[in-house]
Amino acid sequence: FSSNSQHENETETYRAFNVSFPTSVVGWFSNSSSVLSIFVGRFSKSRCNDCLSFLSRIGYQIPIFAGFCIMFMSTIMFAFSSSYTLLFLARSLQGVGSACSSVAGMGMLASVYTDDAERGHAIGIALGGLAMGVLVGPPFGSVLYEFVGKTAPFLILAFLALFDGALQLFVLKPTKVEPESQKGTPLLTLLKDPYILIAAGAICFGNMGIAMMEPTLPIWMMETMCARKWQLGIAFLPASISYLIGTNIFGKLAHKMGRWLCALIGMVMVGVSVVCVPFASSINGLIVPNFGVGFAIGMVDSSMMPIMGYLVDLRHVSVYGSVYAIADVAFCMGFALGPSIGGSIAETIGFAWLMTIIGIVDICFAPLCLFLRNPPGQEEKIVSSQSPSKTTQRQIKNIQLYLKQNQQN
Predict the structure, then answer these.
(1) Rounded distance, CA 261 to CA 271, Å?
(2) 387: which residues sit within 8 A by CB, 6+ positions away?
(3) pTM (2 decimals)?
(4) What is the fold, at CATH topology level, of the domain defined by 18-403?
């Protein structure tokens, strides 16, 4: 965009830019990070034909630090790249680093916090950290970009990333290899679990709404509201603040009220909120629907992320690398399909219809969360699919007889 202070000239410059880079192209650039995250999240977590968890062999610390190194390189590339190709490459590298850090980080939390309530609270705090980045990022980047330049925000971010890397070296000690004590469930087996698929679907479709808004809402604001550049980032501020509030509140509350119910309500709220976005006629009119979108996604994420670990504990082996790879792939699927499909739909039938479609999809998916109310455990599955041996039957009868005698006494 032009740095001219006259808003009319900025609008004309935007229109010329939009002809060269239409909404669909902006969408594909936005989703390149998520596409690479999908491949890394899917294939770097398994090895050989039996899909053994790679994280269980080396532990969680090394992938987290590797993710930091890759994201630091991508941030430097963002600062000094001037062509679409280099920016696309930097965005893709960012997806690789994000996949390494997020999957290993969630797996480490699930492994350290074995109690379900504590795990939900810890993951809620971690998602709050994600929300802080999303909260600060858009206004920080848009304001510095307009008043200082493109390079400044990325150099500041790279300095903060170095500080984070130093903390990891001292706290996590990524040079140590700490493999899991047991072999995890094969990834293909987890993908066949319908309850894990429902939880992953909620994460995917819940985040797809905001993913579709990221490349399309700023363009729609420029066309309908003549918004300034700094306002394009500020528009997402209510969603970021409410996401931070939602993840911290429902990290604890979801365990008490039922994570399935929290996710169901959140999916409905996401659908209703995104449908209301196109009715805004000014940037102030975006505050309430964007706040609703962020708060509802916070409800879904803080419910479904812990339930992924709970389902593995309940129905599989308690090794979490593979299941959080699935969760990360689901999250990235939303942010990969959202911008690419959303950009094309917005170009074809308009932004309002795009929001209506994703809103209806979220509301229709919500009832599936009812199946997560009381999922069967591993013992129930074994009893229903296999008949116990004669030795096992005799042991069960002896235990029942022993308990009966104790009750009589």
Answers:
(1) 16
(2) none
(3) 0.70
(4) Growth Hormone; Chain: A; (1.20.1250)
Identify any residues that bridge with 286 across adjacent strands, giving them in sequence order. Answer: none
What is the Rg, in whole angstroms, of the alpha carbon atoms belonging to the chain?
Answer: 23
Place of tokens 């879904």: 300
pLDDT digits 0-9 by tens, 83-103: 878 887 888 788 778 777 877
Quick one: average pLDDT of 398-403? 49
All residues at 6 or more sequence positions from 1 whose CB lies less than 8 Å from its CB, including other chains: 10, 13, 14, 17, 229
CB 277 within 8 Å of CB 225: no
pLDDT in tens, 245-292: 888 888 888 888 899 999 999 999 999 999 999 998 888 888 999 999
CA 373 to CA 164: how far, in whole Å? 38
